[in-house]
Amino acid sequence: MAGRTRNTMKNMMVMLVMQLVTVLASFVCRTFFVKLLATEYLGLSGLFTNIIAVLSLSELGFGSVIIVNLYKPLAENDQEQICKLMNFYRKAYTAVGLFIIACGLILAPFLDYLVKTDAEIPYLKGYFLLFILQSATSYFFAYKRSILTASQQEYICSAVSQTLGIVMNLLQILFLWITRLYISYLLVAIFTGLCNNIIISLIADKKFPFLKEGKKLQLDKSQTKNMFKNVSSMMLHKIGNTVISSTDNILISSILGVIYTGLYSNYLLIMNVITQIITIGLNAVSASVGDFNARKNETEKKELFDALQMMSSWIFGMSSICFVCLFQPTIGIWFGEKYLLDFSVVVVISVNFYINGLLRVPGTFSDLNGVYVKTKFKPVAMAIINLTTSIVCLKIWGLVGVFIGTLISYLLVGVWVDPYFVFKDVFKISSRRYFFGLVGQTIVLGIIGMVTYGIVGLIPFYVGKVAVCVLLVNALLLLCYGHTKSFKFIFQRIKGLFRHKKVS
Question: What percent of the chain has pLDDT over 90?
Fold first, then answer.
């Protein structure tokens, strides 16, 4: 337990520090990007990233399955099985990389249908192919990263990736300043991405030298069949989640125009950064959920579930309120008033951010207890509803309609499926009280949000707005939840993590 706690703290601290430095570098790089290039190029980056995410469906969850299957042989130092799994992973991901390149070449001639713009963008197809090359080459090295992740050494990957991410941002700023050319921005990303993959691959070879000796070892037919069976269970979740997360920019670009994709990408950058930071903290607190889940009874599992759900509601709720209050002044100061989206868009994407955060804990318990087999229809249903309603709502309300479509898919399917089956099959009790509590928490957050928005609007200075928003929201949440059993559970756990750190 102490070893796992030390690894958890090490992972958290390294990743958090590197993430904060990377955030600063990426914000500076984005500022230069916006100032030196047309807004259309900003939209292209968001659009191409989402197209590649859709093409990456060919991965179909191999990564998650391989990492899960590596845990046991790593714990038992079964080098032969590790080599077999890694060789299987290498072949699978090489095939994925080649498939993405092939799809990119096929899709390139039709790119004009996805990029709606009045401005001429020279070398559009060339830029897209460079994006494809950058994505595809990462798959040729991905299997080496997996063994570090499975052996609880993700902090190494994080340190290398984020260090090179900072180097990439600095080089991109330099080359953009000198050349004012988008291609220089892409070439730097390809070069540093390749260096990142090679360095992590060399580190993995050094830490696990037996991998070179076992390159010819292969899984037998029964093991391969079982592997594909596990992948098929993850496939629907992978497809549905990708459609939900990656189609918004494609719809916006193809129907409204690539310039709107660029404007939205500034807001999305901030949300993604906050999500990454939150994820690091949540992983630190909930790192032992799997072990806890395996050893405890239904009542104790339910206690942990309630505590983690309260923490998610607090953190994602606070962040969503801060988005509503601070997005417009932040973007206005950072880039200028012409880069602002309508406030209705800000409200809806902030609500979607909050709901997405609420789905994390039920999703985790669903996966740990094998409930995902019963909920595999959820992401597919959400994807169909999201795509259909987004197109309809976009035609009626414009840009905000895309995000209303996502909100509808969350409300009709996302918020209830995992909790319903987790309570039914894991806790073996009714989920009615949970859903009533969820509605109550959301109403409380809505009231806190309106109060905070009104007060923050009265403050003339940006720094004052940020300070008052963060402090006021947390003070009100502490007043509402500080006395609860779930808050005390989490507070004691956080104290325990830092106590272990001091002892070690």
Answer: 26
